[in-house]
Design goal:
By secondary structure, the chain is of the alpha/beta class. It has a single domain, classed as 3-Layer(bba) Sandwich (GroEL), CATH 3.50.7. 40% of the residues lie in helices and 12% in strands. It contains 3 helices and 3 strands; from the N terminus they run βαβαβα. Helix 1 (33-56) crosses helix 2.
């Protein structure tokens, strides 16, 4: 467990999600490496914006059946939330 991750909540608002919180990872075909870097940065920004919307809705416990990459987990931890990836669908019911 991360040192800054919360250990307990008195009031938890859980979000159950059947989607991944990852950067898409598309490899752009561009002659300029700087263009590829800009596209990658924008993908990071989109992921961060989605996470901010989830947190703005009040969720502090996020459960998903899909994956969450390390960068996305970092954003959740910094916000004081906990995110659990690859939770079986039966456990979410």
């Amino acid at each position: 467990m991360h040192a800054h991750a919360p250990r307990a909540w008195t009031q938890a608002f859980a979000l159950k999600r059947d989607a991944a919180a990852t950067v898409r990872g598309a490899t752009p075909k561009s002659p300029e490496p700087s263009c590829a870097a800009q596209i990658r940065e924008r993908e990071f920004d989109i992921t961060k914006e989605r996470i901010q919307k989830i947190l703005a809705a009040g969720a502090n416990v996020i459960l998903t059946t899909k994956g969450i990459d390390d960068m996305a987990l970092k954003y959740f931890v910094e916000a004081g939330a906990i995110a659990v990836r690859r939770v079986p669908k039966d456990d979410l019911k």
